[in-house]
Specification:
Layout lengths: L1 H14 L13 E3 L9 E11 L7 E7 L1 E6 L2 E7 L10 E7 L7 E11 L14 E8 L2 E4 L5 E4 L3 E2 L15 E4 L20 E4 L9 E3 L6 E7 L2 E4 L5 E20 L4 E6 L12 E4 L3 E6 L4 E9 L5 E11 L7 E4 L2 H16 L17 H14 L5 H13 L21 H8 L1 H11 L5 H15 L26 H22 L3 H22 L16 H9 L10 H8 L5 H13 L3 H16 L30 H10 L2 E3 L6 E4 L8 E8 L2 E10 L2 E8 L4 E5 L5 E4 L2 E8 L1
Parallel strand pairs: 6-14, 12-19, 25-29
Antiparallel strand pairs: 1-13, 2-7, 2-10, 3-6, 3-8, 4-5, 4-7, 8-9, 11-12, 15-22, 16-17, 17-20, 17-21, 17-22, 18-19, 18-21, 23-26, 24-25, 26-27, 27-28, 28-31, 29-30
Helix pairs in contact: 1-4, 2-13, 2-14, 3-5, 3-6, 3-14, 5-8, 6-8, 7-8, 8-9, 8-10, 10-12, 12-13, 12-14
Amino acid sequence: MKKYLLLCVCAGFLASAEAKTKTDWKANWINTEQCQSASNIWLAYRKTVTLAEVPRTLTAHIAADSKYWLWINGRMVVFEGGLKRGPSPYDTYYDSVEIAPYLTSGENTIAVLVWHFGKNGFSHVNSGLAALLFEAIAPGIEIVSDKSWSCRVYDAYQNTGAPYPNYRLSESNIRFDARRTLEGWNQPGYKNTFPGAEIAAVVGKAPLGNLVERPIPLFKDFGLKEYPGVRRSERGDTLFCRLPYNCQFTPYLKVESAEGATIHMQTDNYRGGGPENIRAEYVTRNGIQEYESYGWMSGHEMWYILPEGVKVLGVKDRETGYDTEFAGSYQCNDPFLNELWKRSARTLYITMRDNYMDCPERERAQWWGDEVNELGEAFYALSPSSHKLAVKGIYELMNWQRADGSLFAPVPAGNWSKELPLQMLASVGWYGFYTQYYYSGDSTFIPVIYDRLHRYLHETWQVDKSGLPIERSGEWSWGDWGEQIDMGVLTNCWYYLALKAEKAFALQLGKKADAEEITRMMYSIEKCFNTKFWTGTAYRSPGYHGKDDDRSQAMAVLSGWAAEDKDPAIPRVLRKQYDASPYMEKYVLEALFQMNAPEVALQRMRDRYAGMLSYKDYTTLFEGWGVGAEGFGGGTINHAWSGGPLTLLSQKVCGIEPTSPGFRTFRIKPQMGSLTEASASVPTHYGDIKVKLRKSGRTILMEIQVPEQTSAEVVSSKGKIQQIGSGTYNLKCPF
């Protein structure tokens, strides 16, 4: 146990490599004597500061367990600051916020509302201490959290009764009793007094540990907006408020009421994925009143359940989310594929916030099987600011490495520790860590995590006498949802692709001996794989007795072992076996493109996603192929692991792939199948790559935009290559 503890303590230094980490703190963690740090505690802080003049710039460093809202002189500065705890098991993130524009000469009022989750979850580690840290220092100015601040428990915020959110969520339901509201507490001139703050902890020590600077942008606030559509139930007791799409948002209401009426708020996703998720309650005071519940929810529709006597004067929503843009695009002459790309992008965005997540309602957890698919989609759909979220996840995953070298997800996690070995191989390998590096061009994380990666692949994993990896059950032997899963073949494929990524990293770092050893190991697998697993008609493990696994055939192709002589056999399997869940379907479709079977891939894509897209009211993709019985036991309606087609439509159909890190050079090799028109825009650090394709006879007419400082190679279906530099081109390619 001591060994594990030491490993985790040291892990904090790993996370600090991704961003500046302050060590010279003058501020302390503060709360109030009234605070018992129970779950779902809310604290209100105030500080009055007098300034002779406003500085040109003043950065405030702010941390909280767990979330905070900041006002200066009555103006909202940060709507939901802070990140869930977990740069390592024992440390905490802090924000850096420019506050000079909100200050005035003379007296200034700083007000902060802190929400302490106070419980573990699948995406949060509870410190056990509700507290705030604030530090803003410049010449002649020192604003630090200490006993000069005021703080009190905001007891209008309360717990609801049962049912409570399921155990995977660290957030609680929020009940706000407006009869206890502190009217104007966050504004200048507030007349009532708060108790003095108390020093709760010092920086760098338990329970909040070291502080690591927030590595992702502050969340984007879209502002309060009217719902696109509002309807009342037949009984008149419920407002059903339609959102423009499935999104993360906070609900707002303005009502007139007598005191003591309870308004219930939840979304159509309240039981998304099976268990109870997040809901809210508002208890009225007398008169006209406004309220916004700060705990974000998600869904297509917001429900306000109204007691008798409450007059609704207005309802709105505030969308918030990760600060990035939908900078990529895809269009073709098939409306079905256009809608599939669009829903994939929307699903991707709703599964991003503090971390990539499986879904925004049931878990909000950074499962790395999901993240591998999500980070790949981001390069084709979102602006480069999105790249930071996956890097944050990489550091977190490696910071949780256990004493025996094993890895597990989701992390950050306070109540989960089971290893899914195949997900971990996928994460650290070709489609995970390597794709993040190669597509973004950011290699800064590689030297930091390499030793831990090497340890996982060469100490935790073992190989047999022939050099093939020995299957590991971990704590959860999981390859995919669904039937006919050949774990033996999948293990070999994922392990080989992990070695492939590690070899690239070793060469980049000049670790020649490691690279040579990895090369030898890869050769051993290559030499033995087909002998052991190829039956003449499909890839199968000797002990596997199910039908030919579509996933296994695909991964063998993507690992590079399926030579041309196997091309006729494998597509036959992939035409008839539809066993992969949406998670692994991406790899099946990619394998078909790799075997130059784009029309088979596109038809399978249409077949597999037809049921999902038949739900016209949904703007996102599902965890399984349907809902209920078709969703592998239920499933949610927003799992971005289903968005593999987004990547493939831009990457394979329009043919845009990098040939050097960050798209400094790239390839355009279209595989249009029976499509007659297709276009895509891919955002990069250099600018947008744009490709527009149109078939004319036996020729593809191409309009291509190559960003400054980049170059491309255009590859025809017959293998002819044309090199082009930055600029705009109109080309003809035979097919």
